[in-house]
């Protein structure tokens, strides 16, 4: 099981009231809500760039356009990396440098870079899952919040009847949906509903933070540099070895000549 990335700005409190009053659920709300606006735009442009890149790749005279499509993908991925700053530090990145100058070298570096395919996976393939995740989490979080605020505005809602009359209050379900439902048209009912929604909000705030952490984990998994398989070997070569712990100086109290003669 993959552990969710905690996020520096998504602290989880054991006390549900402190959790509700902390900045974590509100930062998570901003992170998820911004994806509802930016995600479809990133998906549309990225999908178009991928489609055009595949077409341009078949024609040798449009190498420049193919490289441009890969560059567009990178720019879009940078937007998603930067959005992580709402709840955590921006996602790091590292792309391959062109080994040879010219368009052919740029084409091999950009289109053959595995990081580019990971960018496409995040922007295009994971878009439906991330959009659904963020939407459901926001609905589960914002609906109880709206219920908590019912005593402030329920009396200002007017419901027009078939006979031309009107009733004040908020319908939950409502006759128009074919369900009996119930109408919140008095202060006692509004206060009881607000209390129930407050209890739900105490748990919904954890849900929205967990959804933001899951979204952040997906972004880090796909958009950060892949792990270096030789990282451990490089670390061993750069770190001091066990022989560095053995002192090469002569024993205390002996001169250099005495140490050799003994």
Describe what this molecule looks like in 3D.
InterPro entries: Put_sensor_dom. With 262 residues, the protein is mainly alpha-helical. It has helices at 16-21, 24-57, 63-83, 103-111, 114-125, 127-148, 150-153, 187-223, 231-238, 256-261; strands spanning 158-160, 166-168, 170-172, 182-184. The chain has one domain. Strands 1-2 form a two-stranded antiparallel sheet. It has a two-stranded antiparallel ribbon with strand order 3-4. Strand 1 and strand 2 (166-168) form a beta hairpin. The termini are far apart. Residues 254-262 have low confidence and may be disordered.
Describe the secondary-structure layout.
Blueprint: H1 16-21, H2 24-57, H3 63-83, H4 103-111, H5 114-125, H6 127-148, H7 150-153, E1 158-160, E2 166-168, E3 170-172, E4 182-184, H8 187-223, H9 231-238, H10 256-261
Antiparallel strand pairs: 1-2, 3-4
Helix pairs in contact: 2-3, 2-6, 2-8, 3-4, 3-5, 5-8, 6-8
């Amino acid at each position: 099981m993959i552990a969710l990335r905690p996020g520096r700005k998504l602290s989880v409190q054991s006390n549900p009231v402190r959790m509700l009053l902390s900045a974590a659920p509100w930062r998570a709300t901003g992170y998820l809500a911004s994806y509802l606006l930016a995600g479809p735009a990133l998906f549309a442009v990225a999908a178009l760039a991928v489609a055009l890149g595949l077409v341009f790749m078949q024609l040798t005279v449009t190498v420049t356009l193919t490289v441009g499509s890969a560059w567009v993908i990178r720019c879009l991925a940078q937007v998603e990396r930067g959005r992580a700053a709402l709840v955590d530090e921006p996602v790091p990145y590292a792309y391959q440098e062109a080994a040879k100058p010219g368009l052919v070298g740029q084409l091999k570096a950009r289109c053959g870079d595995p990081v580019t395919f990971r960018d496409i996976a995040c922007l295009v393939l994971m878009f439906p899952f991330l959009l659904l995740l963020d939407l459901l989490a926001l609905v589960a979080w914002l609906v109880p919040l709206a219920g908590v605020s019912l005593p402030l505005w329920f009396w200002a809602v007017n419901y027009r009847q078939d006979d031309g009359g009107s009733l004040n209050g908020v319908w939950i379900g409502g006759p128009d949906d074919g369900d009996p439902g119930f109408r919140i048209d008095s202060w006692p009912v509004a206060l009881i509903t607000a209390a129930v929604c407050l209890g739900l909000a105490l748990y919904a705030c954890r849900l929205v933070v967990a959804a933001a952490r899951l979204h952040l984990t997906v972004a880090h998994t796909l958009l950060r540099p892949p792990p270096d398989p030789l990282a451990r070997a490089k670390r061993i070569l750069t770190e001091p070895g066990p022989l560095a712990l053995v002192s090469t100086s002569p024993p205390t109290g002996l001169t250099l000549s005495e140490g050799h003669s003994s």
